[in-house]
């Protein structure tokens, strides 16, 4: 689930608890070019405060105006379509040919948003079903992610947990990687049992751990919403983490180092209880080839590769 949508849910839950009138908007269908995909969410408070986004353009302004004027939401969910004509697409800042369909619903304690948010923070995958005829909401655990389902009677959405990035090693490159990952919406955990490395870390939002790397990986149980990155340059620490991470269903496992060092690393890993297919999941040298030299540039290349893997983009060439 996109971190922007989690922020929208969290804001809606907070505003509802304060007794404010709240509208929740969900993108349910797009035609042509559209800035945000189906499932994108936005919460609007009665005074016009906004969290999340459905278009990144003037649609937000129009919805804010409707909420402030009391025109929406009504007592029941409703559907709005933007961009049916070229003039309307231009007016609302949509790309040429873009059309956006939204479901607008009043967010109340009965909307199940607090329960949904709590489940997501526990790392659970959830399905939310909104009855468009009477506004009732039901929540249920989901076994796998499903595409958004929408018709005249119901809206069914699957909500997954926030993506995590586990970084082994608290050196300089790790700082830049952590900052970029936070801006991309990851929950970031940095692990380094070496006392001198974590003492100066002061990046807000990063969880710090002095556990041994293998113990941390076992405890956190990486899943398909998790990436693991080893950056210590110390085989004793990196290999410990990799031995556990490569057994997991983590979406990404990578190790910093030269091509030669990573070949040696694979040889060491083969001495343990890892299958060839598990070792084959290791990405190293880590990152895309950008000619990177400085720690910030290396961090950009690493997060570019993780982003490509997360989005299912095939990486044709990494290093010459």
From TrEMBL:
It comes from the Bacteria. Residues 15-69 form the XdhC- CoxI domain. Pfam families: XdhC_C, XdhC_CoxI. Transmembrane segments: none annotated. Residues 165-306 form the XdhC Rossmann domain. InterPro entries: MoCofactor_Util/Proc (IPR052698), XdhC_CoxI (IPR003777), XdhC_Rossmann_dom (IPR027051). Coiled coil: none annotated. PANTHER family: ALDEHYDE OXIDOREDUCTASE MOLYBDENUM COFACTOR ASSEMBLY PROTEIN (PTHR30388), MOLYBDENUM COFACTOR INSERTION CHAPERONE PAOD (PTHR30388:SF4). This is XdhC family protein. It comes from Parapusillimonas granuli.
């Amino acid at each position: 689930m996109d971190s922007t949508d989690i922020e929208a849910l969290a804001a809606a839950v907070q505003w509802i608890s304060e007794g404010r009138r709240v509208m929740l908007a969900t993108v349910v269908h797009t035609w042509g070019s559209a800035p945000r995909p189906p499932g994108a969410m936005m919460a609007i408070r009665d005074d016009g405060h906004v969290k999340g986004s459905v278009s990144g353009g003037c649609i937000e302004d129009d919805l804010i105006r409707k909420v402030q004027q009391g025109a929406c939401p009504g007592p029941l969910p409703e559907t709005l379509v933007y961009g049916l004509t070229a003039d309307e697409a231009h007016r609302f800042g949509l790309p040429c040919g873009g059309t956006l369909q939204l479901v607008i619903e009043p967010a109340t304690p009965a909307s199940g948003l607090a329960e949904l948010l709590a489940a997501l923070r526990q790392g659970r995958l959830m399905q939310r079903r909104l009855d468009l005829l009477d506004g009732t909401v039901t929540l249920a655990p989901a076994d796998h992610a499903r595409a958004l389902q929408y018709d005249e009677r119901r809206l069914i959405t699957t909500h997954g947990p926030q993506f995590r990035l586990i970084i082994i090693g608290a050196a300089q490159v790790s700082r830049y990687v952590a900052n970029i990952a936070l801006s991309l919406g990851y929950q970031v955990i940095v692990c380094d049992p070496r006392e001198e490395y974590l003492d100066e870390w002061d990046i807000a939002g990063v969880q710090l751990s002095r556990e041994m790397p293998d113990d941390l990986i076992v405890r956190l149980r990486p899943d398909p919403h998790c990436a693991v990155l080893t950056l210590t340059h110390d085989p004793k620490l990196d290999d410990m983490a990799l031995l556990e991470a490569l057994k997991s269903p983590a979406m990404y496992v990578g190790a910093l180092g030269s091509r030669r060092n990573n070949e040696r690393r694979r040889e060491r890993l083969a001495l343990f209880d890892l299958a060839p297919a598990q070792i084959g999941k290791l990405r190293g040298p880590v990152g895309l080839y950008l000619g990177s030299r400085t720690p910030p540039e290396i961090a950009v290349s690493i997060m570019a590769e993780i982003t490509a893997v997360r989005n299912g983009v095939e990486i044709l060439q990494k290093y010459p």
